[in-house]
Amino acid sequence: MRTLNKRLLLAWVLGIFPAYIAMGFLDAYYKTGVETLFASLIAQSLIVLLVYFLLGKLAVKFQHQRVEAILSSVLGIAVLAFFVGLVNMASRFPNQFDISTYVLPSTALPFFIVGVAVAFPAVMGLLPAAWRYHFQQTRFYKFVDANLGGIVIALLFLLIYFLLATIFNQPVFEFDDIFFDTDSALYRYRFGTEFYKDYYERTVHPYVLIIVRPLVWMVSLLLKRDMLYGAFAVTALTGALCVFLVWYFVRETTSNSLYPLLIAGLFGASTSQLAFGSLIENYIFLGAAALIFIVLLLKDKPMYMLVIAGLASFGITVSNIAQTVIAHFMVKRNIPQLIKYGLIVGAFIIPLNLLNNVIYPDAHPYLWEVSTLKFEEKNVFGPSVLRANLLSRVMLLHSFVSPDPLLIKEDIPFLKIWMFRAALKNAPLEIARYKTTLGNVLVAVWLLFIAVGGVLFLKNLFKQDNRFSFAFILTILFFFILHMRYGRDVFLYSANWTYAVTLFLALAWREISGKRWFQIPLLTFIIFQMVNNSRLILIMLLASYMHLR
Fold first, then answer.
1. Looking at the predicted structure, is the pLDDT value of residue 3 above 60?
2. Which residues touch 481 (CB under 8 Å, ≥6 apart)?
């Protein structure tokens, strides 16, 4: 009992600072003393419970798998340090990030202290009661207990994505195309305000609103119906969900407990995740839908669940149904079942499109109004060897290790920050380049990792089940072919392939995944990847400062 109390006390102490930060943010919504007290009690209690169980897991791991426990802890601390470093960096730009937003006013501090103090005896009493009523037998407890590592790494990246979301989605960024050709201003309106109409009049996102806006509304209930910050939170939560799903897939396909954490860290710190796990757009939702579909296939879930995931992919962007068809065909290898899947999905497309425009009148043209597709002609370009070369760099390199982006001054009173610029207005095709020693070294190391993965895949080509590997290869090829002609800044679409590249390599590396000589260099790479990719955030802040000052 004494050991339990010490661990609980330590968890309570460790929970005070994150609870304070959370309440500093929530103070904008929970203003009265009573609200602050109860919100502090709930926040502290939840954090204490999470830390308490995490400390217990780590203690067991340190006893039986000391090296893995140390490496897992180093990864977690590195991601947390990455977050702290980004906060420190952003605080130098008060026009973009006001750190006082996360500081409790003096009038609320006494109520916070009382809430935090009450949390300790509340949790101490809750734990024996939970055990007494066999809470450990519930599905919720079993899920958290089995997936605690993935939940923690996803929550750590959630902090990063939400921080960046609150910086780069503010209404002051009132133009589209600023960051990587995203329509962030449009989707800030569509998801976070009452102005949900697509002012570009496109049919290619036929029922995205009935997928995303209800999620934003539910989260906004915790924020006193602030839909804008609800949209920030849902975007960041979806980015964190992608990290968890990558961890989950790798955990289910390997026997090493550290390896899934490393792959999740690699993916979560990728350029693509940092950008689209925070910028309000469609693409992180497409990545999440694709990963959900992959996990459903992995767990051999029933057809109706595959249909729901497929409908979500199509409803967000019509071309993304291809990912689900490729994965279904390669993994199931059952053509009659694939036809059945396609027919069921096809039967629901028009009704859902109609439902979307009933709930949100005039949100965008109906799916059958194909004349509106002429808008997309400005994004279509002729294929060339040069475009193939540069597109390959974006897909394999820039999506993971950030270069110094292009800074383009045209059209709007903001510097555009792009990775890739198709030949527009007589300007040549351009691509971002690595200009630092660290960036160039990381690219060389990353290419070595990719080469090792390719060699191991070929070595084991006929020795293991490669259904998912081939699904990922075909997905990457599909988007390569599509974006040989489509896209001004092809990095915009990187959420569609970054997960596929990551999981392909994760499967290819399985043979060496338990070797310390592989794990430690991969962990080191991830740490320096975060250092390098923080430079992209700094450039985004600096470029924005040029306008906002």
1. no
2. none
